[in-house]
Amino acid sequence: MLETMSKNLVELVRRHHTLDAPSALDVLKEAVELRGEITDADRREAAQRSGLPEAAVYGVSTFYDDLLQPRGERHVRVCTGTACFAATGDAHVDALREAFGLGLGERAADGSVSLAETVCLGFCHSSPAVRDGDTIDAGEDVVARVLSGSARPAAEPAWVSLLDEPVLTRPPDWSGLRRVLNERIAPEALLEEVKAADVRGRGGAGFPAGTKWQFARAAGGDGVQKFIVANGDEGDPGSYIDKYLMERSPELLIEGLALAGYAVGAAHGFVLCRSEYPRSKPALEAAAERAQADGLLGDDVLGSGFAFDVTIVEGAGSYVVGEETALLACLEGLRGTVSARPPFPAQEGLYGRPTVVNNVETLCNIPFVAARGAAAYHALSPASDTAGSKLVCFNERFARPGVYEVPFGVSMRWLCDEVADGLRDGRAIKAVQIGGPLGGILPASLLDTPFDFDALAAEGCMLGHGGIVAFDDATSMRDVARHLLRFGAHESCGKCFPCRIGLRRAHALFAADAPVDRGRLEALLETLELGSLCAHGGGMPAPIRSLLKHFPDELGLA
Amino acid sequence: MPAVTVDGVAVEVAASATLLEAARAAGRWVPTLCFDARQAPFGACRACLVGVEGSAAPLPACTTPCRDGMVLDTEDPAGRRVAHAVVELVLSELPQAPAPHTELAQVAQRLGVEEPRWPGETHAPQPADTRHPYLAFQHELCISCGRCVRACDELQGTFALTATGRGFEANVAAGLDEGFRASACVACGACADTCPTDAITEVSLLP
Amino acid sequence: MTTTCGYCGVGCRLETHVRDGQIASITPAMDGPANLGHTCLKGRFAHRFARHRERLTTPLIRDERGGPLRAATWDEAIERTVSALSRIRSAHGPDAIAGLASSRATNEDCYAMQRLMRAAIGTNNIDNCSRVCHSPTSYALRRSFGLSGATGSFADFDHADATILIGANPTEGHPVVGARIKQATLRGMQLVTIDPRRIELADYGVLHLAPHPGTNAAVMLGIAHVLERDGFVDADFVAARTEGFEALLELLPAYAPQAVEAISGVPAANLERAAHVYGAAANACISWGLGVTEHKYGSEVVQLICNVALMTGKVGRRGSALLPLRGQNNVQGSSDMGALPDTYTAYRSVTDEDVARSFEAAWGVPLSRAKGYTIPQMFDAAVAGELKAMYIFGEDVAQTDPNTAHVVHALKSLDFLVVQEIFENETTRYADVILPASSFLEKSGTFTNAERRVQLVAPAIDPPGEAKTDFEIIKRVARALGHALPWATPADAMDEIAALTPDWAGISHARLGRHGLQWPVAPDGTDAPILYEREFTRAGGRAHFAALPYKTPGDAADEEFPLILVTGRRLQHYNAGTMTRRTGNVELMDADVLEIHPDDAARLWISDGDRISVRSRVGRIELPTHVTDRIERGHVFTTFHFPQTRTNLLVGASADVNTSCPEYKVVAVDVRPLGEAPAHVPALA
After folding, report:
1. Considering the domain C563-673, what is its CATH architecture?
2. If you classify domain C62-133+329-496 with CATH, what class do you get?
3. Cβ-defined contact of A5 to B46 (cutoff 8 Å)
4. CA distance C99 to C82
5. Domain that holds residue B140
6. Given a cut of 90, is residue C575 above it in pLDDT?
7. Chain A residues close to C186, C-beta within 8 Å
8. Are strands C69-71 and C284-288 parallel, antiparallel or unpaired?
9. One domain for residues A498 and A463
10. pLDDT category, C679, cuts 50, 70, 90?
11. Helix or strand or coil: residue C614?
12. Is residue A195 assigned to a domain?
């Protein structure tokens, strides 16, 4: 008999959820925000209010970064993501540590200040970035400003669409939802249109959204409650696409959720947004409130009888919570560990109910399909079989970093040289990592590769979430390997053995001063690829294999 | 009732059976560390990968459902390489070799695992926690297989145990990490019965 | 070795691991039908008592009343016992002697004991501790359905869509079954709990009713009323398989939800919902414990429970069973074996000529047709000077029976008391001869669990010192009395039982194997996981509806005694704690504690942990408190695991009208902080 892990805990959470109880994670986060740390009294209170057993609450309190790092009156979070690493080689981190006299995750004895690492703040266009209290500052001189107490909110470049007619960067107008409801298009018909549009998941896996919706629609019996969940846990260092969508076009996401709910038969949507993006939740909540007031959410959307509401939940500092089963666990207030599949969330998801989990950008694609149809959606990328458009983003090394809407099928070279205008200060691209820390690394020599699912996969890379991080000549690839593996090991949820132990061992291979035995490394990579429970451990070998293939001399192999 | 073939032997299994159940029905051994027949499959150890015709990669036997006509190879070379590696990794994180009677030692022996290829940091040894009259924790022996937590959840229903930490620091604790005695534990012993490394064991059986 | 646990009526199968003649560890058997690889801290860990330094290892004789005990040889002890019993029999007749069989002991031990009392002594004065726990269940199930046992198995909880659990706290008293019920609720089984305390399972159920102690009958009649009113009666079933429904129908109008609320305190809407949950379920079980039976009208409440199942047709199929949670490991068996004053094996009356003759033929002696004394009657007769001697094995009546003062008076009034035990206890204080006996880890035989499952018991270690198995001791005494029991082993005794008992015809040790058999067992070995699939075993094959109105309990709160005490068990100890108090379990719970509601505690100026006095109409004790809102206002709860607490001093003579099961669950008491003088001071024991 197959069941998700801790079906009982999920059931206990579900029973209390219907009583409007907070999740244990909500209560623990409150405690950290109020008092800077978590005590056993806080845990007991979380257990009592959430209905989760005390031991389970303890387990939750030891999983999430936000709960583990003690906070002083002044809490400084320094970004150690790949873009910031690419910018400074982590010199900014060292500078802060020395200046404060604190290690990462430490609080001064008098409680006045604390220093923590965070990955990633989404200011990759202006790396390095530091969050001082609630102010996120970024740029070359950010350390100096933070140390002098004059951190200021960093500017964010405007996003640009390179399509003839902007789709994702356009101000949202609810035209998709309005058309579907006003023209009384049946839910099944909308579902068919989304399938015909071949909307592929934008979060990395590229799974067809329509197929996922179909499973969820067919799952469960009559009257079974279903959910749509937007995965706003854009944890990939170097990626800030969903941040832009959630903060600049929250209505577009909400519209996408509502359309998904309509097609699948769900009346509730959730957005899990990262706590590293403190502006996302307020932006989404404000948009939801406005939508409610305008009759675009609620018990009777646009007078159609369709009911849909949205809850925004903030995460607590864990990268792997971007994996869909871990994300659902986080929403339930449990440890963000990955569950074996099957069963898939479309069958048994949030609170054990059929759930569609889609990436934020994926859902933001839906309103266009609903408004203009599948054919128009296909036409957005004439040079590719992949339909729709894609947002990409560039890191600070580029001359014109920012978020851009592009069609599929364009070459990487065009993106790097024309759209982002090459690297700053006349530097040359050594390699780019595309799609996040689990994405392969493309050397400059292969920049003619088209930006598309299959083409990139053929080069051991992935489209992933669309973040493009460039490394220049100043960066050692061994350092890149070490950086990526450190991130991978730190973020491992700890459940499956290959990832839990294997990533730690892989990082140690590159962190040691000794040469790396290639045979042992490759055996470890194979174990991770074949054995890992999810794409975290399973994907971590990809960039390492790229480095082995394209930069073997820099890796210090034995 | 799906019919599958395991190492050339045909077996008929229940509709919801897993590849592991099919293998066992055919009398074939598949290495497991995080599996306990009284609990729902967990999929953590990844030692149970078996070859399935038509699948490029070996599949985890404990969590993959059977479909009619599947052809299994329980000794798929890639699957066994992973099993071997998994056991090596687990042995490498323990500060000392597991006692011969433990399930881990027996699986290692059966797979022919000797020296781990990737030695490194181990769990720090600590004195055994014997505050409870019957149940002892030896935290450094925990391999985070989750069986004790699931026994307390799915068998006993007391929910006194939890996984703790993340990544390599993952471990297990009772209550608010307060030991068995102060937690909700009712001392049914199911955790000690299922632990494959003696991380949880009877106080009276401590070496 | 694989054996069966000797603690509670779940009957976990256990694997005993022995090293150097000692038990190193005990683990659950993966294939145990009742426990499926699980067990609780008692079966798993609480085995050290078997080698505790206080174990009785030699026979002991007290030469004069009130004097010390001295070690003796077996020959001397047996001779002393037999000569005393023979003397008393000659002078006063066989009915001046009574025996008490242990519900902890095996079927074979109990069968041997009742044969000793009936054939060697010549009296039907034999009883066992089911008297004080589930005798009302036995009585009621026989009257309503026909057989004295659960109608199904624990597995029926897994197949039920709903369950009513009344007067039981299985996560503490039957932990493995409690866990099973809990898992079922998490899978969606709708549980309704009925108990004055908010038991742990109430947090997992869909509804909890907290009636005043002693009002269960009103609640069950109320549920029947709503079932009938709202269309849940299975008319076909009632017509085809029952009798007496019309009489019940006449009674029901008086038990509308509002009327029941006035009696029991259960809100009318909750009563209705409970009935609907049960009635609407495709399959539903009802399970109960001593919170139903240990009452003045306990036997009537069980019949009212049967009514509810009968009117909805929820009996006789998988997932719809009536499951009384038998307490002791072999309380079902000790009664099945006829260690009862009015029945032989399988509850066949001592007055039944055919049955009596079959035993006379087998045993070669004439047998009395007169019903013997129940345990309470034994004590009354002792005090009255009519009962002169008792032979008690494996029951500490001075700690566990109600009205301790009266029990002690009775024991002191006897001319001769022989006690067969594993430890000295409250009862052995008054013994003239003490025979050192064996624990469940040291004997072979069978236990019958609450599912009617007869399971093998295999010894892991030998009895210590000169202690012997109960089977051996009883055989010796019987032989010395002139009636040798013709069995070399307990297996032989079981063969005799099977030969003389149609319901046990197919049972033999050889057949029981690893999984046991649920009686009735046909000669070909077919057993009975589900009873009454086609017919009930009452004459005519029909079940009987009992039209019994609610009557007030034997005790009630008043100005002088304003609180109602309920006594019961906790997880870590078993009843008198004879075994568990001599294990590591004492570290986990080391005292009986009185649970009291915060409002009552505040009113009485009591804080959590304070020592207080508890006074009833018949006695007074002192113990510490625990303030908790899991109990209702006006009620208090405690256990009886520690002899020094003497909880049963408080319990009076009120008992079930049909079976004399004491009303442990309704005792009016006065609670006050120590040092505060009460208004009246009754004579203390």
Report:
1. Beta Barrel (2.40)
2. alpha beta
3. no
4. 14
5. 135-205
6. no
7. 7-8, 11-12
8. unpaired
9. no
10. low
11. strand
12. yes
Distance from CA of C166 to the nearest CA of B (A): 20
Between the alpha carbon of residue C371 and those of residues C355, C374, C407, C603, the distances in Å are 14, 9, 22, 50
In contact, C79 and C480? CB cutoff 8 Å: yes
Burial class (CB in 10 A: 0-12, 13-18, 19+), A45: middle
**pLDDT tier at C677, thresholds 50, 70, 90:** low
A117, A147, A177 — which closes off a domain? A147
| Closest CA–CA distance from residue B178 to any residue of chain A (Å) | 9
Residues of C in contact with B181 (CB under 8 A): 587-588
Residue count of chain A, please give it: 558
A11 touches chain C (CB under 8 A): yes
Which of the four pLDDT bands, split at 50, 70 and 90, describes residue C685?
very low
- How is chain C split into domains, by residue range? 2-51, 62-133+329-496, 151-324, 563-673
* Cα nearest neighbour of B145 on chain A: A495
Instruction: Quote the domain boundaries for residue A47.
Output: 7-62
Q: Please list every residue in chain B whose beta carbon sits closer than 8 Å to the beta carbon of residue C588.
A: 133, 181, 187
pLDDT band at C261; cut points 50, 70, 90: very high
User: For chain A, which ranges sit under pLDDT 50?
Assistant: 1-2, 4
**The total number of structural domains that make up chain A:** 5
Are B16 and B84 in the same domain? yes
Q: Does residue A495 share a domain with residue A465?
A: no
Task: Specify which residues C4 forms β-bridges with.
Answer: C13
Q: What is the pTM of this model?
A: 0.93
Residue of C nearest to A51 (CA): C203
> Which residues of chain C does B204 touch, with a Cβ-Cβ cutoff of 8 Å?
24-25
The answer to whether A24 and A54 have CB atoms below 8 angstroms apart is no
Which are the contacts of B55, defined by CB distance < 8 A and separation ≥ 6? none
CATH assignment at residue A251? 3.40.50.11540
Instruction: Give the residue on A whose Cα is nearest the Cα of C184.
Output: A8
Instruction: Kindly report the CATH number assigned to the domain that includes residue A133.
Output: 3.40.30.10
Determine the pLDDT at residue C644.
84
Q: Are residues A278 and A200 in the same domain?
A: yes
Any idea what the CATH number is for the domain that residue B153 is in?
Answer: 3.30.70.20
pLDDT at A358: 97
Please name the residues in contact with B153: beta carbons below 8 A apart, sequence gap of 6 or more. Answer: A6, A8, A9, B159, B161
Nearest-Cα distance to chain B for A527, in Å, is 5
> Are B68 and B12 within one domain?
yes
The CATH architecture to which C151-324 belongs is 3-Layer(aba) Sandwich (3.40)
Give mean pLDDT in consecutive 10-residue pieces for chain B, a chain of 207 residues.
94 94 97 96 97 97 96 97 98 96 97 93 92 95 97 96 96 96 95 97 90
As given in the structure block, the two tokens for residue C533 are: 């699939």
Largest pairwise CA distance in chain B: 53
Q: Is residue A502 part of a domain?
A: yes
Query: Omega into A552 within 30° of 0, i.e. cis?
Result: no
C2-4 vs C13-19, strand pairing mode: antiparallel
Q: Are residues B110 and B25 in the same domain?
A: yes
Same domain? For B64 and B146 the reply is: no
- Domain endpoint, select from B121, B151, B185: B121
Q: What is the mean pLDDT of residues C272-290?
A: 97
**CA–CA gap between residue A316 and residue A318 (Å, rounded):** 6
Interface contact A7-C183, CB threshold 8 A = no
Residue A415 falls within a domain, yes or no?
yes
DSSP per position, C2-31:
EEE-SSBTT--EEEEEEETTEEEEEEE-TT
Q: Quick one: tokens of C604?
A: 């009485």
What is residue C385's predicted lDDT score, i.e. its pLDDT? 97
Tens digits of per-residue pLDDT, A136-161?
999 999 999 999 999 999 999 999 99
